[in-house]
User: Which sequence fits this backbone?
């Protein structure tokens, strides 16, 4: 056993959330300006495995972690799954978890926590896991988080690459030929993904023809966007983002605050804007260039964005 540390980034979905659950393609990129860090340190025998999360003021021993605890799925489950994978009940380790990814905000905090925990334990046990193995374990965790995940969050976070993702298909990374800038603006409203995913499922069951057509159009947008990203036709992504946002509103996953943020970004000169992730709250993304970035960020703050992060993709 050895001391080790591991990190995992957040993620943003550029195109295709929700429709991706139903087999349509989607595009996601890692968000490296936010991350989870896990430090693993051996402790004396008999102390068992202790998880410390200073951000939420919690220290808990794995063997005492109640599965009904609201933090269990985020912190305890990934640890249990990776220990089961190694066939080790409870090694004497302290895991200190820190995260700058806000929870329930569509930026992949759950998948990033699981990835960093699993990776750090593999390193501490001197059996580093391959990304494919980590991805399988994190997907298991995601299933407990929100029932029917597409797998896009764990994939983009574990491999830390821009991905063109189709559920059940082999990983396809995306070649970003010309870097572009996106602002990520937080509505400040927490919104658990599983609630929005469950509501979209019910909506689909109530009218498969209409909702199925919306999924198909969203998938088509993701395919067109892929070509634009790979050929450097970045400006053409703006209208595609706007249309994707309108379609997500028709799936009932936007909100007044998200619509307000998107409109403010467009009015201030963004090429396009849309919600990103599960929706109902969480974050929007706005495509900007160097000249509009500050103006758009100011406009987003004025209409209530809690935080605006600028990130360059590619
Ligand atoms: C969540 O980041 C993306 C959703 O499409 C759910 C999923 O793909 O599992 C809303």
Assistant:
């Amino acid at each position: 056993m050895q001391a080790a540390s591991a990190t995992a980034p957040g993620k943003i979905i550029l195109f295709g959330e929700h429709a991706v659950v139903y087999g349509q393609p989607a595009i996601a990129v890692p968000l490296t300006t936010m991350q989870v860090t896990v430090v693993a340190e051996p402790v004396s025998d008999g102390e068992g495995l202790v998880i410390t999360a200073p951000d939420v003021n919690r220290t808990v021993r794995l063997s005492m972690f109640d599965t009904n605890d609201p933090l269990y799925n985020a912190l305890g489950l990934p640890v249990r799954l990776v220990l089961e994978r190694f066939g080790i009940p409870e090694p004497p380790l302290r895991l200190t978890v820190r995260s700058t990814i806000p929870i329930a905000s569509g930026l992949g905090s759950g998948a990033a926590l699981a990835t960093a925990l699993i990776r750090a334990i593999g390193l501490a046990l001197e059996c580093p896991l391959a990304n494919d193995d980590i991805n399988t374990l994190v997907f298991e965790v995601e299933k407990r988080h929100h029932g029917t995940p597409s797998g896009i969050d764990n994939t983009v976070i574990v491999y830390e690459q821009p991905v063109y993702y189709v559920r059940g298909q082999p990983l396809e990374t995306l070649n970003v030929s010309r870097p572009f800038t996106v602002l990520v603006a937080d509505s400040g409203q927490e919104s658990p993904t599983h609630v929005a995913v469950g509501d979209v499922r019910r909506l689909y069951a109530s009218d498969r023809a209409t909702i199925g057509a919306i999924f198909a159009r969203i998938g088509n947008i993701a395919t067109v966007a892929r070509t634009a990203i790979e050929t450097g036709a970045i400006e053409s992504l703006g209208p595609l983002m706007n249309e994707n946002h309108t379609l997500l509103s028709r799936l009932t996953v936007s909100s007044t605050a998200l619509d307000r943020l998107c409109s403010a970004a467009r009015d201030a000169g963004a090429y396009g804007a849309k919600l990103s992730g599960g929706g109902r709250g969480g974050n929007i993304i706005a495509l900007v260039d160097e000249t509009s970035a500050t103006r758009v960020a100011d406009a987003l703050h004025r209409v209530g964005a809690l935080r605006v992060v600028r990130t360059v993709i590619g």
